[in-house]
Amino acid sequence: MNRKSDLADGACFKRKRGFRLMGLNFNADGIVRGFFGGNAYLAILFLLFICIFLFKSAIGFIPGFRTELSEARISGIEAANHMNYQLVGYDALYTKVNQAFINEKRAKFGNLATLVPIYEEFESIIDDELEDKVDEYTEMDDSEEKQAAAIKLTTLVTKACGEVSTEELLKTIQSRLPQTTEISDNTYQKALQYAHKYALNDYETPDEINEIPALINDQMGAFNKAMDLIKTSDDELREIYQEIEKIATKTNITISDNRKNLASITSLKDELKDNANDSQVAQAIQTRIKELEPNIIEIDPAKNILPIYEIIAKHDPAADNMVNQFQKGINLLETAEITTEKSTILIHESSRLFQELKEIVTERKSLLAEWKHDKPVTMWNSITAFFFGSDWKTGSDRQSLYGLMPLFSGSLLISLVAMAIAVPLAIGAAIYVNQFANKRESRILKPSIEFIQTIPSVVLGLFGVLVVAGLLQGMSEVSWLSWIPGFPIQDRLNVLLAGILLAFMACPTIFTLAEDALNNVPKAYSEASLAMGANKLQTVLKIIVPASLSGIIAAVMLGFGRVIGETMVVLLVAGNKARIPDLSQGVGALGESVHTMTGIIAQEYGELEPGVLHWKALFMVGLVLFLISLSINSICQRVISRKTS
Amino acid sequence: MNSQLIQLNDLGFSYDQGKTETIKGVSLDIPEKQVTAFIGPSGCGKSTLLRCLNRMNDLIDTAKITRGSIKILGQDIHASDVDAIELRKHVGMVFQKYNPFPKSIYENVAYGLRIQGIKNKDVLDEAVERSLKGSALWDEVKDRLKTSALGLSGGQQQRLCIARTIAVQPKVILMDEPCSALDPIATAKVEELITELREQYTIVIVTHSMQQASRVSDRTAFFYLGELIEYDKTNTIFQNPSQKHTEDYISGRFG
Ligand SMILES: Nc1ncnc2c1ncn2[C@@H]1O[C@H](COP(=O)(O)OP(=O)(O)O)[C@@H](O)[C@H]1O
Ligand SMILES: [Mg+2]
Question: Which fold has domain A405-455+491-517+549-644?
Fold first, then answer.
């Protein structure tokens, strides 16, 4: 048969024969289709695997956490925590007040407060070297020589005084102590005078120096008394806390050991059943069980539980006492003379923190009043303790707390700061490059901005720690910048720093996508607008940006997704303190160290044994992160598809 | 006042800094409140010339007027104290492919006024209604002013573009093949509209359709390779052209 006749009978339309394998028909088309399709569907498979993997690893966290929570409750750890919570609040507050105290002391007395140690050093140096020099000096009679020696001597004395020059010492003494008028500010004379006295073996620390401590004490009187009150106000509460903690920790360890031992015994018993006919193995297992059984220690209510209630009964008076005594201190502080702005601010903040402490105490008092060691912990309690828990505390031998809030709020705050910086920057740049720049400029700008994306995040993080952190802190302490809210910043590594660096990372993503969106606006629109007599800016703001808005929003969302999922940079620069930033202080909260959801996983994962509760908790965090990213992405897709439809 | 609203004097234009001229010394006067048609084969520079009139060519970096001048209302539009943006407020333009903004019908028409800083709602309402009536679109869209302009038919969109242009009451309306993307019925409507607008506006229209030129225009200019070959009353051009070239083109012997 030749081709012509094939054509004639239409056989050429027939499907070309492929080959058969395992009952399936293969042909080139199908194979190509299968290959490309397979690649595409691999993505879905991968996504599915991640989902399954995350869920599988995270599962069991909630019940496990529930067990730990109920053990903490039965043993009384929970009650101890209620008390500790107040003490933590007290500590934060005390730090603030103490800062004010130190600041005030420094402001009032300046170098004077540091004079005493300097003089002590002076004397010790003088002992070694000065003696010889003074001898030389007294033996000289040529006046020129004497002058030269005097200068040498002075230098030595000045050096002996340490950082503060003799002149400065004298000036300070004079200005602070007007009664000691006979001090001349002639450096030579004074130095020589001391040197002389020393040489004549009747050198003594000047009276004015000896008076300093008393003077400080006198002038800081009210503040001092306040500090004394404040310093001791927590003693009683701390004491009963330590008492309850000791008992509760012991019980807690017993209970969790019991649980572990019981679990071992149960599994051994199962093994025993399986090996019932092999008497030798059975014997061995029996022995193991026998060994383990005595390890199980009964909880004796009279010894382990009742004392807790006794201590709790002492709590309220102790806590009230702390509040009252502190209140007295605060009252005294308000009467004390405050000389600097900084101290005023610190004292003001202390008063605010004190109000918070009072609230904490009231809250914990009522929690303790209701507290019962045998109230069951429900699954729901365990869920809320994870999602809304305000503490992430792990790794100590006390009860571990896995509260998502500090991590979540840290991640969120950093991301918001990053977006607040990146969005205007990146979109402004996109508008500029797309609408205003000439070809040469955009040929340079576009690749440069996109190049930022290729900087490894660990490099960016190190740059942040080593360079930007110092710059930022230095800048925040410059006095003429102090009007900026939140300056000076509290921690070297903080939300703002992380936000700035992440903004840097998000910029290229947002820029590229926003520039694309702007570019997709038909030229006919801007042409029409310009032909109406609109200027460039009006055209950009009224026509081009609105026309590309959905694309820009999608760009911003994807940028956000990138930021909230970023790990390395935040791990390096966020400061890694798992605590909820104190938003009540306003912008100042941006100067705090925080921890993030991504950072905590990266930081803690490596040290853990797979399967322990802490490990599972990290997977829960990962799961939450994954769901957040997923929802951001699907919102983006919806925004984009709304535009195209 | 001079009835010659637009005066071109030996105008030369180049897209490439003067290396080659796309418009080669065109002189012509366009009278007020008449429709003037530019015809000629593709690529002969009709659109280019039209876009010289509202200085849209300024947007091209390498574009340059090589010689001659354009005066509108006696003012040289390339004089140093003339602002192209102000000029375009008085010389409106309708494009070949209808291009309403992706906004509501109302906002499309109000756009020209808004960019001039007019915010008063009554003024805007009034102008929108007047312009839509002026472009014979009012009855069709008055109940859906707030809906997207992109939902209108092609012919309606082009008439909306005309409404948008007349909303700011320009002196001149430039139209670059305004019907080339429309079907015959929509074309007829736009042509009808042009005839009506003639009462109030000076219109310059580029068209590739001989019939359209003869139907709507008072005067016709025939271009070839960037040069003005013939310019006269439309009747004269179509019935009794003085140039052989023009006759050949009109009768369809080339083009
Ligand atoms: N933006 C531009 N840059 C460079 N050359 C152009 C541009 N627009 C048009 N031209 C050239 O100018 C000549 C005239 O074009 P045009 O005015 O559009 O012709 P017409 O509208 O008569 O068909 C053509 O050769 C075209 O290729
Ligand atoms: Mg054209």
Answer: MetI-like fold (1.10.3720)
